[in-house]
Amino acid sequence: MRVGVLTGGGDCPGLNAVIRAVVRKGVQEYGYEFAGFKDGWRGPLEGATVPLDIPAVRGILPRGGTILGSSRTNPLKVENGIRRIKENLAKQEVDALIAIGGEDTLGVAARLSGEYGVSCVGVPKTIDNDLSATDYTFGFDTAVNIATEAIDRLHTTAESHMRVLVVEVMGRHAGWIALHSGLAGGANVILIPEQRFDVDQVCSWVTSRFKSSYAPIVVVAEGAMPKDGDMVLKDQSQDSFGHVRLSGVGEWLAKEVERRTGKEARTTVLGHVQRGGTPSAFDRWLATRFGLHAIEAVRDGAYGSMVALRGTDVVRVPLAEATAKLKTVAPELYAEVGVFFG
Question: What is the CATH number of domain 142-275?
Answer without folding.
Answer: 3.40.50.460
